[in-house]
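$ ./design --mode recover --in tokens.txt
reading tokens...
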């Protein structure tokens, strides 16, 4: 093997090992809202409630936007957000419609409707308008929080997972609900939120890219 090819092979091996060990997402925020002493200053607004089941979460909310602002993020190329969304009581899905939205830095990542009522269809897991699915489609938990409507259990949990490109040092997450009834009838909440970022390519990968460019210019 010629010297330049031996060098290239070594760089490729090192880059592969390095990217395998260092390309893991970096957690930058996590909250299950179980600590009542947490002032949640990063949230606007930030009321919490304990469900009848004993689960504490951020909510209940009616119509409006709730925001999380993260600052001083490490260098990165992408972000991931996971959370539990609680849809509580008589959401009517596409019929009203009763809508919910998630956005990052002003970019909408999901705009959809939810239904807890059998006769009304919902857009989720698709966007609204356009989605047309049975009520509670895509749910990850039914009647687990203990909320009632006219004596009947009525709440649904959805595990949300969002991946998107992102490089800025700050990240604003906006969660917006647009139910058309008061919160005692239709409300929502957030729980178990995790935010992580994908770090920039490490030095080995950049070195590999440079080496490949150099090799292409060489004649063997």
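writing sequence...
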């Amino acid at each position: 093997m010629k010297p330049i090819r031996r060098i290239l092979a070594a760089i490729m091996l090192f880059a592969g090992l390095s990217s395998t060990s260092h390309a893991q997402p970096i957690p930058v925020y996590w909250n299950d809202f179980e600590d009542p002493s947490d002032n949640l200053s990063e949230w606007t607004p930030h009321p919490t409630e304990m469900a009848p089941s004993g689960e504490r979460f951020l909510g209940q909310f009616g119509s409006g936007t709730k925001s999380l602002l993260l600052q001083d993020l490490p260098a990165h190329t992408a972000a991931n957000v996971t959370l539990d969304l609680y849809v509580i009581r008589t959401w009517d899905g596409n019929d009203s419609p009763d809508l919910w939205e998630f956005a990052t830095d002003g970019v909408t990542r999901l705009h959809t409707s939810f239904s807890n009522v059998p006769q009304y269809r919902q857009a989720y897991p698709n966007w609204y308008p356009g989605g047309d699915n049975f009520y509670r489609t895509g749910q990850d938990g039914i009647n687990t929080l203990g909320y009632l409507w006219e004596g009947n259990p009525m709440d649904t949990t959805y595990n949300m997972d969002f991946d998107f490109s992102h490089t800025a040092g700050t990240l604003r997450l906006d969660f917006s609900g647009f139910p058309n009834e008061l919160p005692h009838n239709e409300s929502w909440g957030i729980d178990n939120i995790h935010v992580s970022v994908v770090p920039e390519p490490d030095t080995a990968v950049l070195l590999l890219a440079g080496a490949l460019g150099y090799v292409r210019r060489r004649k063997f």
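exit 0
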